[in-house]
Amino acid sequence: MHCPFCRHGDSRVVDSRTSDDGSSIRRRRQCPECLRRFTTLETASLSVVKRSGVTEPFSREKIVNGVRKACQGRPVSEDDLALLAQRVEETLRSTGTAELDAHEIGLSILGPLRELDEVAYLRFASVYQAFDSLDDFEAAITALRAEHDEPVGDAAGA
């Protein structure tokens, strides 16, 4: 790490702390040449590989915007969308992969979106799972209905 003051090519870490949300590390450093101290903020970067092959930085805002379209006219708040995007990002970061395929990101949205709003889920899934016919929609709806029909912990059977 270059010193921002004298441009010396090395520095030593004096103190390290994780940020409140745990997604970055704040380090206090000292230059051995000029003895001045400075702070660095280190984060693990996520990159998205688009279908065209172009790579760009991961953006929660793009997730929110994409899901917002599927949620149009549904009882879903901006806070709900922000929490969904945060959950998706945490899931993606937990894979330990620095480069993610855009399609993988779309698929990782499906689970949290299904829990949030089933109609929005079907709208979004029709794009990311490439629904070709009414049979695809029917199969997805049947799967959702089967989830609703499963007993959740039958107290009478205990």
Please characterize this protein's 3D structure:
With 158 residues, the protein is an alpha+beta fold. The protein has helices at residues 60-70, 78-94, 102-116, 118-128, 134-149; strands spanning 12-18, 24-30, 37-43, 47-49, 55-57, 99-101. Helix 1 (60-70) packs across helix 2 (78-94). The chain is elongated and about 70 Å long. The relative contact order is 0.10. The mean pLDDT is 88.
**Share in helix:** 40-55%
Which stretches of 5+ consecutive residues score pLDDT under 50? none
Major sheet: size, sense and barrel closure?
3 strands, antiparallel
Which structural class should the secondary elements be placed in?
A: alpha+beta
The rough form would be described as elongated
Provide mean pLDDT, rounded. 88
Q: Work out the helix count.
A: 5
The end-to-end distance, rounded to whole angstroms, is 62 Å
Count of beta strands: 6
Quaternary structure state of the chains depicted: single chain
Order of strands across the main sheet: 1-2-3
Strand content: 15-25%
Spell out the helices and strands N to C: EEEEEHHEHHH
Question: What is the alpha-carbon Rg in Å?
Answer: 22 Å
